[in-house]
Amino acid sequence: MQDMSHLSFSEFAKRLHEVIGEEPPASFVRELFSSSVSLPSTKENPMVTQSDDSFRKYFTGGNDISAIASKVIEYMDVEDVEGFLNSRIQDDHDKKCKLWDSLSPWLDTGNFNCCIESTARLFVEIVRVAASKQGKWKRSNAKAKQDFSVYTIPYDENTYEVYRCPNCGETHFDVGAEYCPGCGLPLTNHCKGVVGISGSHWDDPPHVCKPAQKFCQKCGAPTVYYEDFHLMDKAPRK
Ligand SMILES: [Zn+2]
Ligand SMILES: [Zn+2]
Asked: Model confidence at 200, in pLDDT bands (50, 70, 90)?
């Protein structure tokens, strides 16, 4: 049974090698590190000094990478990793699909088009954790993004109308619909406004708010998504 919260360097390297490896595993790992790290010339360069056998063991999992990781992590750059991945993938759609199929459970994006930069971040993260050796690496947000919550509910940037009901998940709304046909939720969050002292008129009428807003930025009143529907309770706690 695979532990989905943790991806070892060895497992990562094997998956990557299957898709973009053009050389034997040891050379591939050496190249992966070399391309991802810009060491100052005054520093010992483990990508030059270490043996093929060491790199082979990083690949097989026979050696963990924490020692080399702590030497290179501060000189690693996500963009360099991305450059290496791009140089191997060369816009080859099949390769990109294979990469996505193989690594998407660990990527911090749900967007196929971002899979290369996300893979680069994943590699740097694996090295960072190995370098710090501070326990298990936890995927920070990949799953949270798929969680059902108002914070991640897609909405129209102009009207703030949700594309998916954050209360029941309904996605089919007729043109002009103002309420969810599945549960009656207003499709746009709004504040409750501020009622005048007499209670007879608005001091400040309700304002349209973004789905994840708890309070109105114009009048400070709570929003209906927050107060009436308690939707923020479903949001991931950080
Ligand atoms: Zn609904
Ligand atoms: Zn308001």
From this structure: low
Residues 6+ apart with CB under 8 A from 14: 59
Domain ranges across the chain: 9-142, 147-238
Distance (angstroms) between ligand 1 centre and the Cα of 37 equals 49
Q: How far is CA 185 from CA 62, 153, 167, 224, in A?
A: 55, 14, 7, 9
Ligand 2 centroid–CA 191 distance in Å is 5
Q: Check if the beta carbon of residue 54 is closer than 8 Å to that of residue 63.
A: yes
For residue 172, give the ligand nearest its CA: 1
Mean pLDDT of 215-228: 89
Strand partners, 144: none
**Residue 116, burial from CB neighbour count under 10 angstroms (0-12, 13-18, 19+):** buried
Euclidean distance between the first and final Cα of the chain, in Å? 28
Using DSSP, how many helices (H) and how many strands (E) does the chain show?
10, 4
Neighbours of ion ligand 2 (CB under 5 A): 191, 207, 216, 218-219, 221
pLDDT of residue 171: 85
Ligand 2 center from residue 159 Cα (angstroms): 15
Q: Which residues contact 228 (CB under 8 A, 6 or more apart)?
A: none
CA 33 – CA 72 distance, rounded (Å): 9
Q: How far apart are CA 60 and CA 8, in angstroms?
A: 10
